[in-house]
C-alpha cells in the first residue's frame, strides 16, 4: 500500500509538472503568434491570441491546433477606393484546424467565423454627406446614422427647399444587407417626403441608399451577415483556408 501511495504521489507530481510546462509552452506560442500576426497585418497594437484545447504540446507535435481565437481591437480595412480605409472595431475570429510551421512563420485555418462592428460614424463617411439635387429647388443630404431598432438603421436626411433648410432632418428606416461577400448595403424601406412635396423615388434613393465595400480583412475572411445594433452595424464574417500569418 505504501508503494502504491508513493507511486500515486509521483504520478500526481509528474502530471502537475506536465501541466505547468504545457501552459508555459502555450503562453509562449500565443505571444509569438500575436507578434507574427501584428507584423503580417501591419496592426497598430498587438492582437489577442488564445490557443484553446489541452494538452497544447500534443497539438504542437501534430502540427495542427484545434482552435485559435483572435481578437483585434481596431482594424483598418480597405474599401476598394485606393488609400481610403474604414475602421472595423472589436474584430473577433474563431479559427479551427490551424496547420502551422514549427517556427510559426505560417499558419492556415481550415475554417473561421467571427464578428465585428462598424461604428455609425464610420459608415456615415460613405453616405451622401454633400447636398444633392433631388428635385427643382430641393437638395438633400444624409447627416446622421443610428440604431432604428429591430435590426434597422435610422437614416437622417437634411433637406433645403427653395433655399430654406427644413427645421429638422427627416428620418427613414433602412435595411442593411451583405452584397457579394464584401459590401454592406443600406437601403431605405420607404423614401421620405419633404414639406409634402412629391419627389421621384429614384432621385431620393440616390441620397438615402448607399453601399460600403469592405475588403482586405485578415486572412481573406469575408462578410457573411450584417445587422444594425446600438453601437453600429454588427457584421458576421467567415472563411475557409484562412491564412493567419505567412
Which labels suit this protein?
6-stranded antiparallel β-sheet, 246 residues, 13 strands, alpha+beta, elongated, 2 domains, 48% strand
Q: What's a quick, concise take on this entry?
A:
This protein has 246 residues and is an alpha+beta fold. It has four helices and 13 strands. The termini are far apart.
Could you explain how this protein is built, in words?
This protein is α+β, with helices and mostly antiparallel strands. Helix content is 24%, strand content 48%. It contains four helices and 13 strands. Strands 5, 6, 7, 8, 9, 10 and 11 form a seven-stranded antiparallel beta sheet that branches. Strands 1-2-3-4-13-12 form a six-stranded antiparallel beta sheet. The chain is elongated, with a radius of gyration of 25 Å. The model has no long low-confidence stretch (mean pLDDT 84).
Class by helix and strand content?
A: alpha+beta
Strand content: over 45%
Order of helices and strands: HEHEEEHEEEEEEHEEE
Tell me roughly what share of residues is in helical segments.
10-25%
Q: What's the total count of β strands?
A: 13
Figure out the total of helices: 4
Q: How many domains?
A: 2
Low-confidence stretches: none
Gyration radius, to the nearest Å?
25 Å
Q: Sheet bearing the most strands, described? A: 7 strands, antiparallel
General form: elongated
Mean pLDDT: 84
Amino acid at each position: 500500500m505504501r508503494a502504491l501511495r508513493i507511486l500515486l504521489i509521483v504520478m500526481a507530481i509528474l502530471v502537475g509538472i506536465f501541466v505547468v510546462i504545457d501552459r508555459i509552452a502555450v503562453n509562449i506560442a500565443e505571444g509569438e503568434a500575436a507578434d507574427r500576426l501584428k507584423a503580417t497585418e501591419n496592426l497598430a497594437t498587438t492582437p489577442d491570441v488564445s490557443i484553446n484545447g489541452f494538452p497544447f504540446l500534443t497539438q504542437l507535435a501534430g502540427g495542427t491546433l484545434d482552435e485559435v481565437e483572435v481578437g483585434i481591437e481596431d482594424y483598418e480595412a480597405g474599401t476598394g477606393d485606393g488609400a481610403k480605409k474604414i475602421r472595423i472595431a472589436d474584430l473577433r475570429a474563431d479559427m479551427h484546424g490551424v496547420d502551422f510551421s514549427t517556427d510559426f512563420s505560417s499558419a492556415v485555418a481550415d475554417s473561421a467565423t467571427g464578428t465585428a462592428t462598424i461604428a455609425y460614424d464610420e459608415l456615415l463617411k460613405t453616405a451622401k454627406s454633400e447636398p444633392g439635387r433631388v428635385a427643382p429647388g430641393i437638395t438633400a443630404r444624409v447627416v446622421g446614422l443610428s440604431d432604428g431598432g429591430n435590426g434597422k438603421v435610422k437614416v437622417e436626411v437634411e433637406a433645403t427647399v427653395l433655399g430654406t433648410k427644413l427645421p429638422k432632418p427627416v428620418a427613414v428606416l433602412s435595411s442593411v444587407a451583405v452584397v457579394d461577400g464584401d459590401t454592406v448595403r443600406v437601403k431605405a424601406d420607404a423614401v421620405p417626403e419633404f414639406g409634402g412635396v412629391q419627389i421621384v423615388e429614384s432621385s431620393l434613393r440616390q441620397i438615402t441608399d448607399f453601399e460600403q465595400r469592405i475588403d482586405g480583412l485578415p486572412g481573406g475572411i469575408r462578410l457573411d451577415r450584417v445587422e444594425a445594433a446600438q453601437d453600429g452595424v454588427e457584421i458576421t464574417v467567415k472563411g475557409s483556408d484562412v491564412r493567419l500569418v505567412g
